[in-house]
Amino acid sequence: MSVSLNTGGEPSGEAQGHALGRTQARSSSADNSPETQEPLSDVLRAKQRGASVKPSVEQLTSLTYDHGLLPADLGELIDLVTIPNFLDQASLAAIIKNLYPATSVSGDLIIKVIGCLGHGKLKPSLTIQAALLKWLIMIQHVAEDRTCFLQAYPVLFNLLDTAALRTYACHLLALITRRRHVRPHRIQTLQTGSDPSLTGLLRVYKDYYPEIIVGDAIRGKASAFNHPDSQWRERLDEIRRTHAQRRASRSEMPLDAFRVARHRLKGASNWPVPEVHTSHATEDSITLEEIESVDSFVKNLEKIELPNQLIAILGDPLLQKLLLLRPEAEGHLRACNWLESYTQDLMAGDSDIRLVDILLTLKSYVIATKGRELVLEILTYTPLAAFPELLTNIFQLLEQKTLDGTSHSQIQILDFFASLLRRWIVHWASSDTKLSQASESAAGLVAHVNTLCLTLIQTSPDMSTYGKVLDFYYQTSSLASDAHLLAHGQATAVPPATLIYNMFFAASPLTVSRVCAVVAEYKVGFQVAIDVADINYTPKHIPEFNGFLMDICNCLWRQRALSDEDPNAKGCMIPRSLVKDLSSYVTNLSMGGSLASLLSLSYSPVFSLFAISSLRELEEQVEEHEGLDIKHAGPVTKATLRTLGDRGGINASWDEYRRGVLNYLNKHGMDGVEHLLSITIGTLRRG
């Protein structure tokens, strides 16, 4: 792309690619060959031009606004605005305003701009210089090498004598000031004026030496150093993001990991996270504010003093690096406490900070520190709302970013949903008014997590996973058992039958007991809702629930395992053909028991050891007082107990024996079995 700035009439050329092409000043030669092109500094006087230059400038600025500038093009335009020429001041100002770099700005260009500042016959006008200073402020965060600003610090400081440049000069100095720049003669210079910009810069100096610069020196009105043009910054970010995407690079430019972050450029006076400041430093101490490079950081890693407020870790890449390499448990705990307090204030309406500000801050923190748990904890405060909207706008996006095919990530998401549901239930239970969509949202959440839990028990079938899943469903059981919640609306969603059966047949007595406890909680809740709360309560899940309730009782107590003949029984969802084959196999073993009894308390591979241990304990008690001629060899059945009593062994009925097993399980922390059976089996409940 080329744009003519000479007497050649209408501008020629059109945009090609993503950035402005080489901008050349052309002579009126008809062939437009490279040999006839003139340098930009030779732009003609206005009276010598055959046409106005204004349309060409407008086209140029439009292209730079749309596509940004590559380094070579940016360099030519910097020459155009810094070297004396005959372009009018309005055109120069328009060009400066649209100098959007698509990539990093080289140190040479920055030095060139700084070099044109000040008084002199060949210097640009003070108005143009002020515009260039403003431009330096807006691009300093994308400088390729920021040390060029530090090297030019004395030059920039001397600009404070010029009133027309003072505001922007103070702003730029505030951004680049380091401890070594704070010197007595500069402090004295800043104290001699009453300009708000000087006072603002002096306050920056005070961050480094609060014991020297006292309150009286900064009592006057001070500049806040907000970003000069937030819309310009947004456009620059968009141009750079588009350019980076086209280069198949990262979608966002990274923060400098080896300089403390100063958020004054953000333009937000209510920036939520404090900046890094280290007070009470001495000449011999090393602070984060003094680190300028990776070499300096590595060299002083063990000597760097921590800043005043460690919550600054959320917004400062350098502090994040420090605490990753020198872990401070207290620092991370303080950050978590600050976030929790902030979130509570936000929900209570006591904070004027925008939620988007803290979320953007957390985004950068998570990228730098992999703080997934922190974000998940914050999202547990998601308020009750229509579940389809929450699923689309939050939960599905969260799962896409978190789930990576491992059981660890799945458990993290499950823990998140369990905590979220807990907060919802607390909010729901404490509300005196009926919450719209509350029951639908809770039921939708449980139904959504059902799929996750089914996946988990297949990908990681161990006790730890089963424990996490059962923790969640014990939480959901309150939706069915709390009369106050039921008065607000029915939100019941029972665990899937497949999940219950899988965990019931797990090789862990504690897991089986907890499965029974969860099922018992649901049964108690249903009964409370129907009988006590006087609620017209007909959950659609009752038939499914009664199915696995009956199957569990058939296995453990009624010695009808895998049977589907009773009302509601589903035979544990095992195909009848397989049950028939298993029955034939057990019969051929001639072990004295049928398939229907092999999952009872006596024969169950999970509870058989506890059952015989219970009987041994009882036999020892009887033997101590009365003596026994014989002990049971096990496993215990109704028939063997009767025979045992006749032969001088322990004299106990079948029901007494089974009650003893249940009591034995209770003493060993597995009371879920007894709880479920006692509220389901009529004879056991009456006994």
From TrEMBL:
It is found in: Chromosome, Centromere; Nucleus. Pfam families: CENP-I. The keyword Nucleus applies. GO terms for cellular component: inner kinetochore; nucleus. InterPro entries: CENP-I. Residues 24-39 have a biased composition (Polar residues). Residues 1-40 are annotated as: Disordered. Keywords: Centromere, Chromosome, Nucleus. GO terms for biological process: CENP-A containing chromatin assembly; mitotic sister chromatid segregation. Belongs to the CENP-I/CTF3 family. This is Mis6 domain protein. It comes from Xylaria flabelliformis.
